[in-house]
Write a structure and sequence with these properties.
Layout: E1 4-8, E2 13-20, E3 23-32, H1 35-49, E4 59-63, H2 69-86, E5 90-93, H3 95-104, E6 111-117, E7 123-131, E8 134-144, E9 162-165, H4 172-179, E10 183-187, H5 194-206
Parallel strand pairs: 1-4, 4-5, 6-9, 9-10
Antiparallel strand pairs: 1-2, 2-3, 6-7, 7-8
Helix pairs in contact: 1-2
């Protein structure tokens, strides 16, 4: 089992976790939108509390988005800095992949359709298929209005049905119409935990899906944005 430090600054509150011997130890900020101030003190408190040194970590895992643009940049910059200064590889993971992985352990389905709210009444959307404790992206991750979401490569003849997960499914009727399908089950919550994140990161680390810090890039989904 690898020892991983997981960093999520894309959520409402900054979260870090230590995955050690298959268990998760968590630290979470008390204030929303304070990731820049909280992330390094939380990491320091977590590692000191467990008597773990940075050079004892097998890898860093970081949520690369989509999500808060500022949060994405903070998380990646933190992971890059720690990776460079301590020669630790990085496991970058999409927030949509984490949702799909969480759903695959709670629902019996074929494809997991992740959908979370974005800016300007748009949604981030992707389809993932569960495979050997991992989730594989089908097509591409997208951002658009619910009425305009489509996905090439989506297998509509699913034997067990589609599972929708994420707060973007408040637009369920519009999304089902634009995709031309009906969900077998759906939850309108972003129900993924840091344990879900760490489990997926550990699986990908063991598969060799690791990167040097300069190759860890933000997953904004939209290529041309005006950032604030």
């Amino acid at each position: 089992m690898p020892t991983l430090l997981a960093i999520d600054t894309c959520s409402a509150k900054c979260k870090v976790a230590l995955w050690k011997e298959g268990s998760v130890l968590l630290r979470e900020g008390n204030e929303s939108q304070k990731a820049a101030q909280n992330v390094l003190p939380l990491i320091d408190d977590l590692l000191r509390g467990e008597s773990v040194l940075l050079d004892q970590l097998d890898a860093l895992a970081v949520v690369t988005g989509p999500g808060s643009f500022t949060g994405v940049r903070i998380g990646i910059a933190t992971a890059q800095g720690l990776s460079l200064s301590n020669s630790i590889p990085v496991v970058p993971i999409s927030s949509l992949a984490i949702l799909a992985s969480a759903a695959s352990r709670n629902f019996d389905g074929d494809l997991y359709l992740t959908c979370i709210k974005a800016r300007e009444n748009e949604v981030y959307f992707a389809a993932y298929q569960h495979f050997d404790d991992d989730v594989k992206l089908v097509g591409s991750e997208l951002v658009n209005t619910p009425e305009a979401i489509t996905l090439e490569g989506l297998v509509k003849e699913s034997a067990r049905g589609f599972i929708g997960i994420g707060d973007g499914w408040v637009y369920r009727e519009k999304l089902e119409k634009s995709l031309g399908l009906k969900l077998a089950n759906c939850t309108n919550n972003n129900v993924a935990s840091m344990e879900d994140f760490c489990r997926l990161a550990a699986v990908r680390f063991l598969k060799g899906d690791v990167f040097k810090e300069e190759n860890v890039l933000p997953n904004y989904v939209k290529e041309h944005m005006i950032y604030s």
